[in-house]
Amino acid sequence: MTLAENDAETSSQVIESAVYQSEPDVKIDLSELTDIHQSLSEPYDLSQDSIDQFSKDGYIKLKNVINPNALKLLRSKISSILLDVLGRTPGLAFRSDEMMWLQDDLVRRFVLSTRVAQIATKLLKVDAVRLYHDNALSKEPGCGRTPWHYDHHHFPIDSLNVCTAWIPLQPIPKEMGPLAFAAGMETYKLVNNLPFNKFDSSYDMQLGKIFSDNDVPIHDDAFELGEISFHHALSFHTAGANTTDESRMALATTYFEDGARLTPSQTMISGDFQKFMPGVEPGGIIDSDYNPICYSAAE
Fold first, then answer.
1. Which of 169, 221, 271, 278 has an alpha carbon 20 to 30 Å from 177's alpha carbon atom?
2. How far apart are CA 76 and CA 65, in angstroms?
3. Which residues pair with 94 in a beta bridge?
4. Tens digits of per-residue pLDDT, 276-287?
């Protein structure tokens, strides 16, 4: 089962087969790229209330973090990248790609943004953060809901100071399936002993029932363009089906505290960690060229 579940019941209510809607690639001149880089380097005025909310709820949504026009250019660029990588295969309802920052100048400016990384650093209350990896996510029209999950399950990072910035590349109304969160930094403790099963939907169904039985608040509000969210690696999140006729695209960038180590042993869901941190040995400090420091309070 993929994270973007596409069960028959959900899909029959929307569009039978997702057809990839590519957009024209964009050509960006040097001055435009410089302006985008500058805007992504300016500090964000993060309030103490927002930091406290993140510590309490495990996530935060922040408005006006990134210029909407820059995000429109990024959407076109990522659409082109996904077309190059995946083609136009019909029926592929959830499209994704990783490590794009190594290949594309525009994507690199976003992924290595000190503005975004500074927010992550302050939310995690650490001195500096490194990049784990980027991830383009495109939920096509007709794609079903994303099951409940939390990222700590599959991050091979021996630290809890890990968070992900989720950056929508268009406004996301509820019918498009915005990222939704189970509030509470310690909500994971309710299901800590529940065995994870990546092969069917039983884990997702049990989580939903436990959250309901324990009155866990679920926040699934729409996203404005320029608004982004940050969620902790222990934060449970999901997303609804995309019942619109437009691709729901987002860029996710994950950060971890500088000095964190690779876990001593991996599991079946740790992912292809060698791809994201080449040369790092189990138990070793994660400091490969693919994991640059994106923000340091000391600089």
1. 271
2. 19
3. 139
4. 999 999 999 999
- CB neighbour list of residue 149: distance below 8 Å, 6 or more residues apart: 3, 204, 236, 237, 238
**What residues form DSSP beta bridges with 261?**
285
What is the per-residue pLDDT for 9? 33
Q: What is the DSSP string of 151-220?
A: GGGT--BS-S-EEEEEEESS-B-GGG--EEEE--TTGGGGGTTSPP-SSSSHHHHHHHHHHHHTT--EE-
Q: Please count the CA atoms within 13 angstroms of the CA of 155 that sit on its side-chain side.
A: 25
Please count the helices (runs of H) and the strands (runs of E) in the chain. 8, 11
Residue with tokens 């794609």: 143
Low-confidence ranges of the chain (pLDDT < 70): 1-25, 89-91, 266-271
Phi and psi for 83 in degrees, rounded to 5? -65, -45
CA angle, residues 66, 68, 73, in degrees to nearest 5: 105
**DSSP helix, strand, coil percent of the chain (3-state; round to 5):** 30, 20, 45
132's tokens: 């784990």
Residue with tokens 């019909």: 90
Contacts of 271-277 with C-beta under 8 Å, sequence gap 24+, read 271/154, 271/155, 271/156, 273/156, 275/98, 275/99, 275/133, 276/98, 276/99, 276/132, 276/133, 277/132
Q: Which amino acid is at 64?
A: N
49-296 folds as: Jelly Rolls (2.60.120)
Q: Which tokens in the block code for residue 236? A: 């449970």
